[in-house]
DNA sequence: GACACAACGTATCACCGATACCGAACGACT
DNA sequence: AGTCGTTCGGTATCGGTGATACGTTGTGTC
């Protein structure tokens, strides 16, 4: 048997804490229960994690990383937008399949504080968004796009977690995802056909102010738009 | 002096707890600190609120209701969509001006649980969304619209609260709001002129499927739309 | 082989949520 | 009117928690 290093102890504590979290919920994560389950004395936790909050942060990051590595087949698909969709879905899937860890990451909010695991997730998202921007498909700043996606995704997952499983809206995540994407991506969304009239109406409503078209063109355009709108 | 009823005691406890929450943060809300600040014995809390969680729920609802009554001038404007916007802004404003209460409402998430204050906010939102639907301006179900708005709004506020004040995106809320509204509302938003190119792009993207225009008309229309889009 | 230093384990502190139990005040019934 | 039952408020305390002081043991170094 090789020497038992500090990193081993740390890993063992995190494993025990994660198991305890799944088995007994968040309230079961007392320093005593964790130290007992890991076969360690309470002070060891404080030496390794400094604080109970430090321990919780570490447990959250541990669960998150563990999930990520278990899904490591998620590589880049070459299409940055598709990667963004996958990232969203992976995020939601993590939240729903390991709600205790997700809540640990995002749930106990305190003003001005972000858990390291949440920051990690945010950084991953940002790098994907940056690739979308480099592909020329972003229509807002990387900063804003990342924030919008992150905030919305978090809200959706927390909402789903808080909703009893039977009452959940199965399509909420997808709807929110496409809604946000339609806002941040350059306009290449698929034509649904059904909302074509709305687009025509919207365009027609703002037509008066433009100087791009001549009066005659505008009159004819308006007529066509009305036909599309009434179709 | 009139008789000191139980409801008075309850109110006094909630006031003291709310003050304590603002002054010392959430960790300061111990049963002992609250009971001492309210001039009451610890068991009284359990008689009135049953539980510490019950107390926290009551404090959250107290702070939320107090904020609502302080902003009671927010009546119906007659325009349901405008009311929805105001409701969103009021929600965000509450979260940012009283983050401790907001976090109490939404922050300590637990799987399958929703705080009464959050349910109250959700019910208010749903009634507004129902009025939007009655006005014929909703494009998805009331249920889905309400969930989408609520989840997104919550995500935005929690994100803002977690972000240090100096780094916050001042327009994040408005962007998210309009993004969600654009998804759930039927297309009759006011023309701002500046997003005319987007409308032209949107229309052009869906143009191929329509049989309302002749080929020649479509070619000319596409040309005009490109000019508008590039303006 | 002795020593300095770091890691470990015991014991304990102050505090927390929660409750059992007792006494007093109040109202109802005879 | 007097007794009694019931409900409410107060004392004291229980088990448990986060955190740490301090003695002890092991280890690497000179």
Which term fits the overall shape of chain A? elongated
Biggest interface in this structure? A-B, 72 and 74 residues
User: Taking all residues together, what is the mean pLDDT of chain A?
Assistant: 88
Number of E-state strands of chain A? 0
How are the SSEs placed, and which strands pair?
The structure is a homodimer.
Chain A: H1 6-24, H2 31-38, H3 42-49, H4 52-70, H5 80-97, H6 99-107, H7 116-134, H8 142-162, H9 172-184, H10 196-205, H11 215-230
Helix pairs in contact in A: 1-2, 1-4, 3-4, 4-6, 4-7, 5-6, 5-7, 5-8, 7-8, 8-9, 10-11
Chain B binds a DNA duplex (30 and 30 nucleotides) through α3.
List keywords for this structure.
homodimer, mainly alpha, 11 helices, DNA-binding
Task: Describe this entry's structure for a reader.
Two copies of one chain form a homodimer. Chain A is mainly alpha-helical and 231 residues long. Chain A is elongated. The longest helix of chain A has 21 residues, at 142-162. Chain A is built from eleven helices and no strands. In chain A, helix 1 crosses helix 4 (52-70) and helix 7 (116-134) packs across helix 8. Chain B binds a DNA duplex (30 and 30 nucleotides) through residues 6, 30-32, 40-47, 51-52.
């Amino acid at each position: 048997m090789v020497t038992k290093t500090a990193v081993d102890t740390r890993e063992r504590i995190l494993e025990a804490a994660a198991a305890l979290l799944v088995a007994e919920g968040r309230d079961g994560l007392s320093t005593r229960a964790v130290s007992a389950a890991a076969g360690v004395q309470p002070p060891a936790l404080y030496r390794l994690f400094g604080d109970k909050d430090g321990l919780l942060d570490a447990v959250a990051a541990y669960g998150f990383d563990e999930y990520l590595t278990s899904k490591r087949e998620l590589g880049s698909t070459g299409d940055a937008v598709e990667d963004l969709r996958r990232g969203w879905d992976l995020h939601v899937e993590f939240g729903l399949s390991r709600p205790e860890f997700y809540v640990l990451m995002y749930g106990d909010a305190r003003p001005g504080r972000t858990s390291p695991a949440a920051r990690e997730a945010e950084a991953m998202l940002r790098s994907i968004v940056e690739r979308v921007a480099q592909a020329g498909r972003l229509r807002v700043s990387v900063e804003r796009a990342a924030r919008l996606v992150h905030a919305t995704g978090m809200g959706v997952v927390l909402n789903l977690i808080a909703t009893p499983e039977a009452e959940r809206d199965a399509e909420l995540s997808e709807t929110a995802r496409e809604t946000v994407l339609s806002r941040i991506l350059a306009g290449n969304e698929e034509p649904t056909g059904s909302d074509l009239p709305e687009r025509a109406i919207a365009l027609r409503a703002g037509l008066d102010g433009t100087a791009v078209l001549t009066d005659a063109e505008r009159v004819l355009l308006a007529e066509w738009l009305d036909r599309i709108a009434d179709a």
